[in-house]
Amino acid sequence: MLLIISLLGLVVGLVLGLTGAGGSIFAVPLLMWGLGWSLPEAVPVALIAVCIAAGLGTLVAWDMTMVRYRAAMLMALVSWLFAPLGLSLASSLPAMWLTLAFVTVLILVATRMLRQAAINPQEAQIVRARVTRQLVQRDISTGRFEWTAAAFTVISGIGALAGFLAGLLGVGGGFVIVPALRATTDLSMHSAVATSLMAIALISAGTVTAALLQGHKMPWLVALPFVVGALVGMLAGRKLAPHLAGPRLQQAFAVAMLGVAVALVFPLLFSIS
Length: 273
Prior knowledge:
Blueprint: H1 2-19, H2 23-35, H3 39-60, H4 69-92, H5 95-119, H6 149-169, H7 174-184, H8 189-213, H9 220-240, H10 246-272
Helix pairs in contact: 1-2, 1-3, 1-9, 2-3, 3-6, 3-8, 3-9, 4-6, 4-8, 5-10, 6-7, 6-8, 7-8
């Protein structure tokens, strides 16, 4: 059993290392299938694994000068206010509706990634968005964000959405944070993902803490081997990422997400009928 749990964590870490996001999208369904858990039971373990793996990715996989620390910390702080709302809503909703919400997120993200890969395959990334309007400006000399009211509002809004989804569905928020940063700032993909990893680590840590304070039990005998597997997968993913073509990796990731969505919906159709 411990080997199976470690292998499940390995898959999550590998996805997070390859893409800079998306680890928790697979963590929750893998725990549900592998251990027979419900979605609320899987959320805390998924988040703690993503938290530690994303923290490791921030420390060893990226040039730390690319991390916008203040933005990551602001997103995390705001997310900690909204994560309990997501947790409370998750505890009051039927498991079927939570699963359907999770499936909807999977389909939306996968569809967007497939569309991006088709439109611009030369620059395809797992989580990519074209800059449409730079609502958050940066100081040319330092590269830091200029903290205007608009910048504060935009970054806080990203954190609020990521925190709510983390509490509701157990997703770290990278698939929200990176496209949002790319759409509202002039950050490079490298810098956006590096900043996202730091924010994911902090958001996940805050959401796990909120879950524990609300009385959720943490099955440490499952969580620890899952985390170890995720850490190994993260390191392996960062080694493999430079050798894999962006468009192919993006398409494979999107197809896998659609497969997960179908597999989650299939049992619900039988239960309804």
